[in-house]
Amino acid sequence: MAHMHITSWVLALILIILVSMFYKQGKMKPGKILHMILRLDYLFILYTGITLYFTHYYPNAGGFGPEVILKMVAGLWAVISMEMIGVKLSHKEPIKGFVIQLIIAAVIAIVLGFGRLPFGILP
User: How many domains does the chain have?
Assistant: First the structure.
């Protein structure tokens, strides 16, 4: 399940780059289609993340409870930032603040997921 979660994150990052490229080039229809696919990927990210939480962290969190919650909040923050980047680009509004938020949230989630918390990459 962890590998599917990581794969969905990588796919989301690739899709947000493609969405922003299409929107900036003025190609609204392909951008809108990829934006909808990205939204479906958000659901997959949420499903795999919740499944990971309830199968691995919830039963035996040990002393990592607050850090797991922080990682979940950072992951949701990253997903919301990606969505806001897509929405702002479709309306031709500035996205600098949301890009900074995405980078911060992604770094927090990745550092906690791979560096600090147990079960970094599960079998």
Answer: 1
d(CA 54, CA 120): 15
Provide the Cα torsion 4, 57, 72, 5; round to 10°.
Answer: 0
Cα 29 versus chain centre, distance: 23
Window from 53-57, 73-77, 84-88 with minimum mean pLDDT = 53-57
pLDDT at 40 over 70: yes
CB 120 within 8 A of CB 109: no
What tokens were used for 116? Answer: 């600090």
**Distance from C-alpha of 102 to C-alpha of 120, rounded to nearest angstrom:** 21
Is 71 part of any domain?
Answer: yes
In a domain, 121, yes or no: no
Gap between the Cα atoms of 86 and 38, Å rounded: 9
State how far the Cα of 57 lies from the Cα of 35, in Å rounded to an integer: 31
- 0.85 exceeded by the pTM? yes
- pLDDT for 122 beyond 60: no
SS3 at position 91: coil
Question: Quick check: 28 pLDDT over 60?
Answer: yes
